[in-house]
Amino acid sequence: QKEVEQNSGPLSVPEGAIASLNCTYSDRGSQSFFWYRQYSGKSPELIMFIYSNGDKEDGRFTAQLNKASQYVSLLIRDSQPSDSATYLCAVTGRRALTFGSGTRLQVQP
Amino acid sequence: GAVVSQHPSWVICKSGTSVKIECRSLDFQATTMFWYRQFPKQSLMLMATSNEGSKATYEQGVEKDKFLINHASLTLSTLTVTSAHPEDSSFYICSALPGGSSYNSPLHFGNGTRLTVT
Q1: What is the per-residue burial (b if ≥16 Cβ within 10 Å, else e) of A90-109?
Q2: Best of B21, B23, B38, B43 to disrupt the A interface by mutation (most A CBs within 10 Å)?
Q3: Alpha-carbon span B18 to B26, nearest angstrom
Q4: A109 vs chain B: nearest CA distance in angstroms?
Q5: Which residues of A touch B (CB under 8 A)?
Q6: B10 to chain A: nearest residue by CA?
Q7: Which of A85, A108, B48, B91 is least crowded, fewest Cβ atoms below 10 Å from its Cβ?
Q8: What is the structure's pLDDT at B31?
Q9: pLDDT by residue (tens digit) across B11-62?
Q10: Are A98 and A89 in contact (CB under 8 A)?
Q11: Percent of chain A beyond pLDDT 90?
């Protein structure tokens, strides 16, 4: 079982729609949860982080965490073509930052 | 804040040669730096954790004699790929943790180094 699992996609949404990206993790001791965006050939860029159960909103982005289900998600409202990228879920806890394989998002104009 | 600079951005070298990659924290002191590697269409895999003034901790499967890490100061860590081979061609990315921060703190990454071994 992978430590951090994501659907590889691609997830295709029309411009202006809500994109929903999901991630599950295996280590119940995980304490911090991150979403990074990575454009092709570039380094990951931090978008959101969340530590506690519930929702955390920042602009068009909302991170949701459910520790009981070992599940974390990222919602992107009013998706734009510039949001097209690979979104990486990452967790820390007993180990340094561990990444999922990423979900490729395509926002269609 | 928390700017991490990596150099070079890309490098092409011949098989059997060594390549050094630098990672610098520009506006903070980093007691811990992390080195990741990313193959095409795959995720970032942690190679090693580097602590200033001590030996790096390597992840399982990463050869410490091939990937030499030096973290001699609070703002600089280097990764040297020794006797590089084509299978070492990858995207190498570093990140740095400010002093006093825990592993649970957000990490910011350098721009990465694209290594191509011919």
Answers
A1: bbbbeebbbbbbbbbbebee
A2: B43
A3: 26
A4: 24
A5: 31-32, 34, 41-46, 49, 51, 88, 92-93, 95-102
A6: A41
A7: A108
A8: 86
A9: 999 999 999 999 999 988 888 999 999 998 888 999 999 988 888 999 999 9
A10: no
A11: 88
Mean pLDDT for all residues in chain A = 94
* B40 preceded by a cis bond (ω within 30 of 0): no
Half-sphere exposure of A15 (CA within 13 A, CB side): 5
Token representation of residue B85: 């081979």
**Would you give the DSSP letter of residue B87?**
G
Residues belonging to chain A: 109
CB contact under 8 A, B107 and A97: yes
Under an 8 A CB cutoff, do B42 and A46 touch?
no
List, in order, residues 6 or more apart from A42 with CB less than 8 Å away: B111, B112
Of B49, B108, B109, the CB nearest to A96: B49
- The DSSP output letter for A82 is G
Mutate: best of B5, B33, B44, partner A, most A CBs <10 A: B44
Closest CA to B46 of B16, B22, B69: B69
- From B109's Cα to the closest Cα of chain A, the distance in A is 7
CB-nearest to A100 from B43, B46, B95 is: B43
Q: Nearest CA to A49 among A84, A91, A87?
A: A91
